[in-house]
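Exercise 7.
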Amino acid sequence: MHSAHFRILKAVVVVSEGSARYRLSFTAGGLFTQSAPEAVRLFDRLQDWAVVIDALVADNALQSRTVASAKRLARELVQRVHELTPAEREILLDGLSEERAQLMWVAACRRYKFIADFAEDVLRERFLLMAPDLTVEHFEAFVRGKALWHPELADLKESTIQKLRTNLFLMMREANFLTARGLIIPTVLSTRVRNELVKRESSDIRLLPTREAS
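Solution. The predicted structure, written as tokens, is:
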């Protein structure tokens, strides 16, 4: 009876954890740190995110080769910037490059739980354990582990997994979390970025390679 009860309980847990499917549409674009301030300025003027997307496409602000690609990247950028609070978006306008990168990384994590889980379970965990590097093998192990609760990962083509991995590692390098050789770089937060991140019920400092308390 105990064994049967355990199997039922385990099945319920798997279904529960797997019910919230990962969004996995971050296969291109990097962090958008250069384009994010322009999106904020456009929104401050237009007050409509849909119109902001149209303006970004019309100006080819993301330097896309096709209109379809421009629309896809503009939507992706706006969806991430929309994850930030008004105060955080203000920092994007006048902040240092490091501050913009940190906030756009957090925006990506808020938009994509897959990235947030990787940031907390792998990037920050390895940093806190003083492991020096983060490699492709760590990403693959993360995907295999999460596939137990997220069957959408098990169904992905290898080419899609490679795109996710390539863009995620690009984002970490653009955020200055990783060197080109995959060594983890400690993040130093400015006071104003730290003050914004700790306002969340679960502090978003947990998503960064830093020893600051979250």
